[in-house]
Amino acid sequence: DSGVTQTPKHLITATGQRVTLRCSPRSGDLSVYWYQQSLDQGLQFLIQYYNGEERAKGNILERFSAQQFPDLHSELNLSSLELGDSALYFCASSVGDPNPVGGYTFGSGTRLTVV
Amino acid sequence: GENVEQHPSTLSVQEGDSAVIKCTYSDSASNYFPWYKQELGKGPQLIIDIRSNVGEKKDQRIAVTLNKTAKHFSLHITETQPEDSAVYFCAAPPLNDYKLSFGAGTTVTVRA
Predict the structure, then answer these.
(1) What residues of A are in contact with residue B31 (Cβ under 8 Å)?
(2) How many CB atoms are located within 10 Å of the residue B20 CB?
(3) How far is B17 from chain A (nearest CA, A)?
């Protein structure tokens, strides 16, 4: 167990629907990062939060949004889902800001399948 | 932003042989270079990292080397074992940025 908890582990939904992915960071970590990993693709950065505030945005679609709550857990909302959104979504956390010294700790991911 | 290139994309080695994966980065200000291992069905796990003020770091059968002049760093796995079979990712953050840019990954297969 890495200490980063992601739920649900698997999600199957239809096109056009909306889903919410949840992440609880490792104890003591203030930064949360969301990454998308499509089949045979690398890790694409989506968005980062630090202590409740948005810090950085990557190639995140307008249909996607995220937030970090006062208890530091984060949620990634995906709406108007398309087949191409099927992927593994990883959450990672770190202590450091701005530089992720010590690296990230990743959760086990949520596998989203859009049918 | 940081651009990280990783080679090779796949690597097959005989058990007991060495494996080397190389990454190049674009931002000369980058100062932290981690390596992650991702096993099937799991999230990436940090296995070793190096700071820019160090040229080499070892941890048992794993080592990372850094050449700041050439802007590349490499992962070396010696005496490979079947449990080393996984996808390996290198990463680098630009200075004062909050995100890691990852390489495309290397699928390592250790043949028994």
Answers:
(1) 99
(2) 16
(3) 26
pLDDT average, residue stretch B54-70: 94
Q: What's the DSSP call for residue A26? A: P
Taking residue A85's Cβ as centre, other Cβ atoms within 10 Å add up to: 21
Judging contacts by C-beta atoms under 8 Å, the chain A residues touching residue B97 are 56, 98-99
Residue in the structure block whose two tokens are 């949520």: A110
Given pLDDT bands bounded at 50, 70 and 90, which one contains residue B99?
confident
Given this model, what pLDDT does residue B1 score?
Answer: 61
- Residue of A102, A104, A108 lying closest to B42 (CB–CB): A108
* Residue type (1 letter), B30: S
What is the maximum alpha-carbon separation in chain A? 39
Q: How far is B80 from chain A (nearest CA, A)?
A: 24
